[in-house]
Amino acid sequence: MTLAFSNVAIIGAGIIGLSVAYYLARNHGVTDVVLIDQGQPMAFTSAQSGENYRNWWPHPLMTDFTNRSISLMEDIAAHSDN
Q: Is the pTM of this model over 0.70?
């Protein structure tokens, strides 16, 4: 077995994890990133919920993180023509 290492590991491939990976690559040149998730990317935020996402959380900090991530995802959509 060969092990590969990355500079950054992001746990979770939901809206927040994907946004962080994109932001690091686009704004900081960090391209050696691995996303770690037990399922498919966005599995609990789009595939399981009618192809939409939520920004309601019981804790305000998580709501802020998600709202910022949604903004980053919208930025990706605008720059990539979806």
A: no
